[in-house]
Amino acid sequence: MNKVLQRTLTFLAIILITACQSGLSALSGEALDESASAQQSVLADAIPDTLPSAFISVQSQTGPRASTLASLYSDSLLMTYLDRAAGESTDLATARLRLEAAEARLRQARARRSFSLSASGSLGAATGLDDIDFSDEGGVSLSAAYDPDLFGGLRAGVRSAEARRAIQSAELERLQRVILSRTAQSYIAAVAADAQLALAQENFDFLGETLRVSRARFEAGDIARSDYALSEAEYENSRAALAAQTLSARDSSRALASLLNAFADEELALATTLPAASGLSVSIQSGADQAVLSRWDVEAARLGVVAAVADFDATRAATLPSISLSGRVGGGLSISDLFDIDTYVSRLSASIADTIFDGDGETARIDEAKTAIDLALVAYEARAREAYRELTSSFDAVEVAAARVTALQAASVAAERALELETIRFDLGEAILLDVLTVQRRVNSILSARISAEATYLQALADADLASGPVR
Fold this sequence. Notes:
Layout: H1 2-28, H2 36-43, E1 73-74, H3 76-88, H4 90-111, E2 116-126, E3 135-146, H5 153-219, H6 225-259, E4 276-277, H7 288-293, H8 296-318, E5 322-333, E6 345-353, H9 361-427, H10 433-467
Antiparallel strand pairs: 1-4, 2-3, 3-5, 5-6
Helix pairs in contact: 2-8, 3-5, 4-5, 5-6, 5-8, 5-10, 8-9, 9-10
């Protein structure tokens, strides 16, 4: 009996050592010959062949592409808000929790490749009803089990969990870049809205003064009734525009507050002028294909293919026979015999199980897993194509916005000069008030368009930086 027990314990020790080595290798990644990274290298060339291998950036842009928004704008307050958005965003907090959950699932998948060891024991006493004579009884058992994973189902599960963990990591990186980009754009929109509000207020005050002068000149008989009526109409129109711009400024501030996880009515400090762009610094040096592949959303889509392939391997392995090894030492005994080795019983077993017929269910599950791979590949290709479209569109937008800003800057200078000359002519009696109001309206319109164009250009820079992917 002692020899049997010794052999049993030796067998259990072998299982323990083998499983521990396998578990440690799995944790370090050394035993995963077909790891997610290996699968990724196989799929690295799966980018659609139609994707251009080169991209000509805006000619006026020089120097390396900016890797962070801090290099795009010169505004310390904006940098403060970017830090705040990264630290307080509830969306980012949710993404981090999803990553933690994926890491836990990965640990579970790796743990299935290890052995399981369990122990149990019991103590009790029994007596007959005709006499009070207690007899003690008890039981102790120790069992171990191990799945050798001959067909790779567990390894495929680990690869799938690794890929899904990497997907969540890529999603977190993508979401962080998106939130930072949207925060910068919302800040720019809020500053532009405040500038437009200041312009509307200035225009309202100017027209109010013009109306006062017009009333006096009309009462003195210097101008016609039509001139005074026109001045009054312009004044009331500016009042309506001021109210609309006030609402727009409030909405812009609320949008920024939302990205900062702040309350809608929180007073947010804003710069009095739009941030200065640090040159046309967004460009692509290595080609559009590398820029597209570096994007975290494209990376997540590619990892989706990796996960689908691993799921297919696991599904196929599940249709093959399952084999497991187990050992057990224990038995029922009285407490007085607890340390008597001859009272223990050992058992060694190996089991195999397979499904003979399940109504074609296994074939259907394999077909579903194959379809999942095809869907992941289609999604990967679609994401890459859309990323390339976003890339080219964003750089076009930067180029067009820059040209528009340049033109409006020249137009605003010319308009301001025209207003000065028309005001002089009006003071000299060479022009009527209608001429002055017409020029003033054009000046305000050009100034408003210039503010909008500058904001659009600055926002386009953020879009281009986001579309061109991180430097990796």
